[in-house]
Each structure stands twice: as structure tokens, then as C-alpha cells.
Amino acid sequence: MQSDAFKPRIDLHGERVEEALARLERFLDRAILSDERDVTVIHGHGSGFLKSAVRDYLKTSAYVSTFRPGDPWEGSDAVTIVTINK
Predict the structure, then answer these.
(1) Which of 14, 26, 70, 71 is 20 to 30 Å apart from 77, CA to CA?
(2) pTM of the model
């Protein structure tokens, strides 16, 4: 089993915005290379700064086709579901 296999989920909650966005960018790079269609970004609720920063970043990312808050069974508004451009 390959330990560095891409997992279509990243957990950023509890991180500072700057480091979280850098990790998110690398994660999206890997998602494209792994030919993923949908990925999950966990940012939590917290103060809302990280969620806002993540969603603002996704609005400008060339990798992103669409994104939405998670459904209740996916984590609700504590996660963002991202559809990758193909």
C-alpha cells in the first residue's frame, strides 16, 4: 500500500490562515495531478476567519469549478466541498 496516495480530504481547522491557504494550494495541485473530481476541505466553524479565507481563495482559484458548504452528512458548514476543473 502506498503511504503517499492522495486522499481527497484536507483538514485545515485550527491552522493560521496563511499556512492553511498554502497547504490548500498544494492540496489542490495534488488533486489535479491525481485526477480527482471532488474534494473536501475541513475548516471548522471557529471564528469564521478560516472558512471565509478558504472560500475567498476558492473563488479565485483556476483549479476550482464550483464549491459549496457540506450537506449535513458531510459536515455541514464546517466543510467546503470543491469540484475541480477538468
Answers:
(1) 26
(2) 0.93
The stretch 51-55 carries a mean pLDDT of 98
Report how far residue 13's alpha carbon sits from residue 65's, in angstroms, rounded to the nearest whole number: 23
Residue 2 in any domain: the answer is no
Calculate ∠ Cα 2-40-59, nearest 5°: 125
Q: Which 8-state DSSP code applies to residue 37?
A: S
pLDDT single digits (tens) 2-35: 457 899 999 999 999 999 999 999 999 999 999 9
Q: Which amino acid is at 4?
A: D
Domain range for 77 is: 9-84
- What is the C-alpha separation between 32 and 47, in angstroms, rounded? 30
